[in-house]
Amino acid sequence: MQGRENLVDELVREEEMTEEEYEPLILMFATERCAYPCADVAGLSKITYPPNVRLIRVRCCSMVPPNLVLEAFRKGVDGIIIGTCYPQDCAFKRGVERTRERMKKLAPKLREMGIEADRLRVEAICSVCTNVFKQVTEEMTEILKLLGPTPYAEARAKLHKEKEVG
User: Fold this and answer.
1) d(Cα 7, Cα 121) in Å, to the nearest integer?
2) Biggest distance spanned by C-alpha atoms of the chain
């Protein structure tokens, strides 16, 4: 778990927020059997999708702990997509169901933090459905641009400055 939090720190440090145009930072936890290969196929096929999406490969979507999602928002991530397999394709039986249930239970905590529910999406993306991958990432980017930065945007700027100094 500690390793994943450090990975989130590193991804957030890489992103500088500029005053000119708000470009939301999207973190996508992508399953290694479906969403991650789809992103790879999209890249190899030269399909353009928003450059503000950062991928973290996970074995199964159910291995994304809710507290990691909350921590990513606290560190200034603007939106999170959990790219799952389709339920019938889940190698871990009920992984997709469990993930959807766990993320729904986060809604009260997100509200308490001042984070809109639309900033967290759980989406099934098959390994070759590049059109779905592109659509989901573009839609999320547009939604986040309308919502604007989270209350934790300063945390992201602080992490970025630490990177520049250190």
Assistant:
1) 20
2) 48
What pLDDT, in 10s, does the model give residues 60-109? 999 999 999 999 999 999 999 999 998 887 777 788 999 999 999 999 99
Nearest to 120 by CA among 133, 104, 131: 104
Q: Which of 106, 71, 101, 68 is nearest to 84 (CA)?
A: 101
Of 14 and 10, the structure prediction assigns the larger pLDDT to: 10
Q: Which two tokens stand for residue 165?
A: 């100094």
Whether 19 has a pLDDT exceeding 60, the answer reads no
Measured over the CA atoms of residue 65, residue 71, residue 75 and residue 78, the dihedral's sign is positive
DSSP-derived letter for residue 91 is T
Centre a 10 Å sphere on the Cβ of residue 163 and count the other Cβ atoms it contains. Answer: 14
Give SS3 for 132: helix
